[in-house]
## 1
Amino acid sequence: MKIHWPKGAVPGRVVVVCGVLCLVLTMACGAADPKGRAVLRLATTTSTRDSGLLEVLVPLFEDQEHCRVDVVAVGTGAALRLGEGGDAEAVLVHAEAAELQFMDSGFGVRREPVMYNRFVLLGPPDDPAHVARLRAASALRRIAEGRFRFVSRGDDSGTHKREQYFWEQVGGRPRWPDYVESGRGMGATLIMADELDAYVLSDEGTWRRMAERLSLREIVVEGEEMRNPYSVMVVAPDRTGRDRRLADLFADFLISEKAQRLIQDFTVGGRHLFHPLRLKR
Amino acid sequence: MDLIAHGLCEAGRLIASGDALVFAAAGRSLAISVAAVLVAGALAVPLGVFLADKAFPGRALLVLTLRGGMGMPTVLVGLLGFALFSRRGPLGGLDLLYTPEAVAICETLLAFPIVVSWTHAAVSGLDPRYAETSRTLGARSLRRRWTLAKEVRLSLVLALLTAFARCFSELGIAMMVGGNIKHRTRTLATATALETSRGEFARGLAMSLILLVIALLVALVAAALTRVREREAR
């Protein structure tokens, strides 16, 4: 079928105005800030955004350096990919092995450990596997041996990587039908564990934020291996094609006394969530 | 551009290697949406014909509401489904949350207004003489409506296809009610979302390409079927 455009249906003027509008919109939405501030693109994990910590730190940095920070909160894997592809100038994630690999591959030019929070093993209130007094890895083994329900993130996130590390510690993960992989974010996975009365490994921040609505309880919290360290990395300028100055300033800021104190004082529901790593005592 | 080329290659590789997870997800997506569309169709087509054929007070409002329902956000349906099937919800006892059945039920809700609205529009658009003729010929209302439905069968196929497309590609319900559980409720759409959040962009792209190809195949099969029917009718 041939389409006949009626002549004069769309006046030239309209076309021009639309074109100009599109151009203006593209420019406004692009990297340039309408107020002429420099823009830092930060790729980070959902846990930092969802806890509310970034909302405390980022505005302060923006004021201090007179810039704008665009925060893209995705999974750790995706955040690293954004950095690798040069779509972010700075990356704030929690996955030590992957971070070191990122640096070794030359995608990052600077890495600064900033803070840590903790992982918690949660489970049904009656703890049917009786693992409350164990360390995380042994607890997981006993859950597997008893074939209790366990919900895994299954998404290569920092939390999933830690779970896999625990399984390696006990000689690999046995297969059993009630081991469920959600492939979703921490919040959705916690809801699933709650619905299914299952055990689940979580970061403390997301757990605290949602604890009120869930019937799960903390089963294992102790142990050095439950530490969850976050680092900021400056992405190599040859990846981003941009100046690394702002990303460096952001890294400086995060490990500055001022930001470290804010991290220490940050609470959710009256509990401290993040522990600074660079505070001089 | 590199990413798109990569995605195409990955899609080819996944199909060629018969990747079990991808094929299982595709089969699940297909089964869930087909079930949803069939159930929705069985209920919605008669209702659509009825709405076009029979005048009653409040009909216009009902038709309008159903048309509005075509734009129902899948996340909203997903949330409603979750509220219903959750352990603390009214249907929690059925233990349906995080099952393909629950996804199919919610997708039926998604498909229903689409099929009703399209059927209603198609039948309303028929020459009024059809109904009159069959009425004067003494056809009882049920029989008459069957004739009307047969008259617009091409539109009905299109209505079902549209509903299928919506169900097949939707993400909100499959995530909320299905839960994206590996080997159980992971569909092509939720697998795509997972790969994307993982940073496996090429794999994500490959999965949505496979989704697109299947949608195309379904449309082709439907077209072939209606064609055969048309020829037989002549």
## 2
Amino acid sequence: MPLLSVEHVTRRFGGVVAVDDVSLGVESGQIAGLIGPNGAGKTTLFNLITRLYRPDSGEIAFDGESLLRTPPHRIVRRGIARTFQNVELFPSMTVLENVLVGSHGRGGRSARELLGELGLDAVVHRRAAGLAFGTMKRLELARALASSPRLLLLDEPAAGLSHEEVEELGALIRRIRASFDLTVLLVEHHMNLVMGVADRVHVLDFGRKLAEGSPAEVQRNPAVIEAYLGSERPQHAPA
Amino acid sequence: MVGAADWAGVAQQVVAGLSSGGTYATLAVALVLIYRATGVVNFAQGELAMFSTFVAWTLTQHGFSYWPAFALTVAASFGGGIALERVVIRPVERASVLTVAIVTIGVFFVVNGAAFWIWSPQVKSMPNAFSTRPIRIAGVAFSISDLGIIGVSLLAVLLLWFFFRFTKLGLAMRAAALNPESSRLTGIRVSWMIALGWGLATALGAVAGLMAAPPLGSFDQNFMQPILLYAFAGAVLGGIDSALGAVVGSLALGVFLNLLGTYVSWVGTDLRQAAALAVILGVLLVRPAGLFGQALVRRV
């Protein structure tokens, strides 16, 4: 049984179907990639899993139990933490305080230890607002890890990072999976990163599930190539 | 040239100004607290403080002396503030800032009316919190009451600062104010943090009311209205989003208004409120973020 299972989930915003009958499962210990062109519904799916949105239909279960009756502030206690596409830190707080807030729900490793693990020792007492973007992203990751999650949702962790930082990020994700005993679901545009770290890749396009498989399988899939490379994009999702 | 006797007079007036400023500061910090948590100025802050003061006055009429009444009232105000948020603010939590601000204006009138209804419109007088004797420091006689009010105001603000800086709950409340969405996902119950903020602000307001009432000699249901104006001016001067700014701004305003009233004969006590309004206007025109506030930069 997968640790996270999304079954036939649909979410509409007005007339737009942002997520359309999507099903996917993430096995315990896996690093799963979630890819798709802009507007494919990836972040919406994240927001559905973390209960910031409510699905119109379908079921989302974590560790065999439905998440749909869990309010957002209890998600972390179920063992799910996330980062955001645009980095949602507490800007006027120090780096240490940001991580301490993260351990609000359920404590685990000490905040100092975490900051060390993510290479943030040097900026412990600096305000989050003044940090370099890459450092902010690592801080957000440290905050998420502070709650000792079992499932970590990363929303475009590579966006805005330099080439070197992206390479380090891949190694970092694999390292924290091992040392924190994590399952990771990763939304990412950076194909090299996804194909390098993911065990399994799920592809969304226009809110629908387009394909699923190992990185190599997905890269060979004609529908995926079409979705990414097709210069004349069809107005409707391919059947 | 100004003689030695005048310097003693100035020192006395400065301390008296700091004393009123301390009261404004306590109320101003309450304003900042709610502003940071919900993005609105709580126009009912002064009336809630007035209501607390009347509760304390009732207790003193039933055999309580000042300080036990003070402690009970501050505790009750904390609970009352939380209850008020749950009943009145919670339903408009997701509404626009303007809606919430209008609700606080509604609370202003309801609380004011309720106080007139419960306690007759005759003026009341509050027992003194401190000895009325003067104390001589370096040859200058200061009022013990003024020094006591300064002490209590600073202590209240300092305790609050300590709470926000060093406790887990304080950290969670700051997080909830800064980024509600992220906070929720770290397990913080944001809505309850806002309620707690109202509780703390109302308790702080009670301290302000209970410091302000005794030196007035007599007070009625409208006695906090000018003090709210001064607290607002102090908070705007310091920066409405900065607690430190609100304290510094309020103390400075207290001293400024007191010196102005004492040494500029045509200002007297009547034009003090006008002077406070002038300060608000001046700050908003020249430096809208205040002395310590963060300038609001909006990306377009």
## 3
Amino acid sequence: MKINSVKIISLLFFVLSAFYLYTAHQIQVFAFDEGAPFNAKTFPIYLGYAGMFFSGLKIVLPDTKPIEVDPTYLEFKKTILLVLTMIVYGATILKVGFFLSTSLFLVFSYYFLGERRWKYIIIFSFPFVAIFMYLLHGVLAVYLRDPLLKYIGIMG
Amino acid sequence: MIEGILIGLQTALSFQNLMMVMIGCFAGTIIGMLPGLGPMTAIALMIPITYGFDPATGLILMAGVYYGAVFGGSTSSILINAPGVPGTVATSFDGYPMAQQGKAGKALAIAAYSSFAGGTISAIFLLIAAPSLSKVSLSFRSPDYFGLMILGLTAVAAFSSKGNFLKAMMMCVLGLMLASIGQDTLSDIPRFTFNTMNLSDGISFVLVVMATFAMSEALTIIIKGNDPSKAAKQISLTDLGSIKVSKEETKQMAVTIPRSSILGFIVGVLPGAGATIASFLAYGMERNFVKSEEKEKFGKGSVQGLSAPETANNAACSGSFVPLLTLGIPGSGTTAVMLGALLGFGIQPGPRLYETNPEIFWSVIMSMYIGMVVLLILNLPLIPYIARILAVPRTFLIPMILFFSVTGIYLMSFNNFDIFLMIGIAVVATILRLYDFPMPPLILAFVLGGLMEENLRRSLLISDGSWSFLWDRPLTVVIMMVIILIITWQFYSSFIRKKV
């Protein structure tokens, strides 16, 4: 058996299914439901076994369509930077407010992906978000939480 | 039925709904045109917006987006040989060579006329088939529904990516596992919440769709380093040539369209098959039907080679609504997304929808037809302008997709946890995509998870815990036989036949 990335992913899935099955057995059901033909843990238990069965087969059986990804062609740096930017965006959107956090998220994302035309970077961030907010908040009456704009007095 | 059609027309032709069809078709065309982004992403991005409307309007918007995205996918197939969706891969076989010969405008017009004709013919089939099937499906019981759901999952796993059946089945299980998180619907017992309040209501459907499609597709484009804008330079996007189709070409299309429509609709109705298989089958069938001199032109810019898959993929789109509207069971990833949205509106599609919410049932069917007309009269003249969107650099495109995804979730929950969870699922989905693990089975399973558990619960309680419900009724037996056939065929074709 040749070990490759798909087999490793399948092994991880097998472990996940085993953990899921263990957790399914720990679900506390009502005492009168314990011996019932179906209770809150019946379906998850079947799912745990199904996950172990399919991932087990994938590990054991030969690969009919082997796939290997050449890491030299993958843009890890850009992807990780983008994911980190999203995490920061997610963490600040409630505290800093929609306008500033979204605009900065867009500015950094454009920059990290290689954009250097500052005129377009600015147009498609701050004014773009302002128009988007106006459409959502002003026209469609969708509530947008923005403590910063509220503090300045722009938003009610 | 006439009364229903009139109700549907009245709803679909209201000013607001007409606007929604137009906006949906237009937005769908633009999103579907962008390589890597398909109808599922387009619909997923629209879901948070639709929750502001009534169910009929929301569904009409999504149906418009669906058709628009399929048409948009054809445009990128023809112009830059980069199909936006798998369903339009066969379109590029003859569409792209035609564009290389300086007939891009004509190729787009043939695609538009064929899509229109295929969609129109199949909308008529849908009009006839859906109410009849609704009546038949009233006799279905819980074991039949449970069997049908397993059949849907197995079929999607078998057809969604050739040779990856086990990977697809793993994705089905993962989707069902994600759906099981949160309180049990009957007993309210928390499951897999790990004492976190944020998980007690389960994971939002929109979150999973956004993460596994919109967000992970955007991340996959980045990590793979594909640059669609470079490919776009192969054909001039400013001079597409004439969109006029000659009499001879019209005659050729007139022969191809009816047979491809019928094939496309039937394939669309089957669970799991969908537009991709329909378009490939139609292309293959057409190649066998034409004269030998025309056969030589296939792959080099044949009118019939372009018309057949385009007709079939649109016909399959209408066909895929049949199981959704009549049984409440989606047959494809895209209709699974629509089912999720419907459940979000508090509507349970199925045989009763025809009786309880006729305005939704009929207005969706009628809006499909209106969507076809809108696509033809709105998009065809605008194609030279819309095509320029293909030149939008990914440096702007990707952050916009990520922004819409995060905003969609933020607007629904105002919760940091959901945003982090979405990012986490998107990262995992991106890694899985890199190694060819298909995402449509995951979504279908996630949507069906609750319904599947409910039907299994009823079946097991009725049969007092015995699994004999799987062979008690002839209909259930037939469904189970089909499932066994699909699984056996998958293993035979993957392992035994290859060895021989």
## 4
Amino acid sequence: MKKRTESTGSEANKMGRRKFLGNSSAAFLGMGVTGISTLKAMENQPVGMHSSDHSGLFQERGFEAMVQKAIQYKKIDAHNHTGNFPDMIESMDRVGIQWAAISDLQGKNTPENFRKSNDVVLKAVKQYPGRFLGKCRINPGYTKEALEEIDRCVDQGMVMLGELYDEYKANDPVYYPIIERCIDHKVPILIHSANILGLWREGYPKVGSSINTSIADHFVDIGKRYPEALIICGHIGGGGDWEYVCRVLRNAPTVYLDTSGSVSDEGMIDMAVEHLGVDRLLFATDVNYETGVGKIMSANLTEKERKKIFFENFNNLLKPAGNHVN
Amino acid sequence: MLIDINSYIGHWPFRPLRGNTLEDLLQRMDEFGVDKSIVANINGIFYKDAQGANEELDKMVKSKTIFQDRFIPFATINPVLPWWEESLNTCHQNGMKGIRIYPIYHEYDILDPRCIELVKAARDLKMPVSIPLRMIDLRQRSWLDVNSVLDLNHIASLVKQVPDAQYMVLDMRVGSGRASTAESLDILKIADILFDTVRASGVPTTGYNGESLKGMMDTYGPEKIAFGTETPFTDYCTPFIRVAVFNEADAGVKEKIYSGNVRRMLRL
């Protein structure tokens, strides 16, 4: 399999960073330089909002140092989708995301449409080298067509499956051959989840979710059946009860959790770290760029842990199939 | 100068919060360079008599000189309580600069005559009325929590009744909570109103909820946008990143967002 380089992405990111810095002060630049040396010195010290390294002195426009530091981390967005690609790249650049794993969710999830979706993604990956990683869309209900499509997409360089939506719960047997094929290809599979009250407790509204939307319990089941699979539970912050997710996914030690979603409640990532450990968390945005980055910056993590979540953990999942980036 | 128009202290009954004291909030403000924060006491949502929460906040703010310099306390007023007017006047005399109302949590219609009277009274005292569209994302609500949110049509309907009051819309939703009628939009455009930035994205591509700082600016103008964090509910980094990467705003517009607009409203 191909080993990717990120030279193009890195250059584009630098351009984006320059644009960003163009709006800022010289003092801001100075803070950025200091930040780099601080990064090395404090590799194993917690640096989030609740670490003990705060001076207690008022720092004029102190947030700018945090933003600059946030942009500097190397990042792969494990959960993103298609859209206006130039706007997406501009958005990625502004928050320092080099790579985004994208899938297309347009149209009813029929074999004809999921093939079209995957063609859109394959085209974007080629058109914007070094910025996007392809994710394959299938509907597990069409077993034969789905398996053929997985083979086609992986052969053409897609790095994983997902986001598989809510046609079926993650523990539904229709997933078995799909997951087995992913195991064969050594690629991850990302499945949508939303732990909304009405999905795990009778008598409450499901707030826009389907009855087949996966909740954390379903990931526990499928994780137990296929411990060797690289299964990712979608978006801790995608709506739903993230405390529920953290508690229940303790029982799925082989399942990963992406950090995306519009919800960026304080303490969310810290709780995920406490219950699941840093190594199972994958930085992602699901098109929410600032919350994606901000929630990781706010968490009480060491530099090493931040780097793992922003980049290394997901990149490690891409390694078995040789799809990792440098 | 940087002013946060949307912060809280106090307890939330449905999950633990951190950074929810004046001491903690001040530490954050120092680190991030926030000069002042408008702060209300969450407990006022849940106490039967919200005035108890206002008294707690008043005592806390007055316990240290630096708190008085850095915090702008807003009173929580529940107009359903027969003594709301007395509470409002007490808070005003104690130096509180504005009010927060919670029609859904306090179970009254935003057009309830008592609410309209409260807003008129706040107007007469030159106290802005701040209204959170919601406190949580309903997708993650507790079974004990409320099950609806306000939108900008609700806000516009209140503004229509008291057009000369001053308003702050918190947890501003420009996606699902947008003003969906031309009348609402027209009312909000000419109102003396500020929308906070906590939910709006500064990058060109917006997510599921469709929030966009550029959309807010294009719709309502830069004079109606003010920086807010919604701390301690939302992580304290995201709101800063949103505005920092909003490259479509020049330095002058950012100054208005960071403090200029709210300084004008509060006459600071």
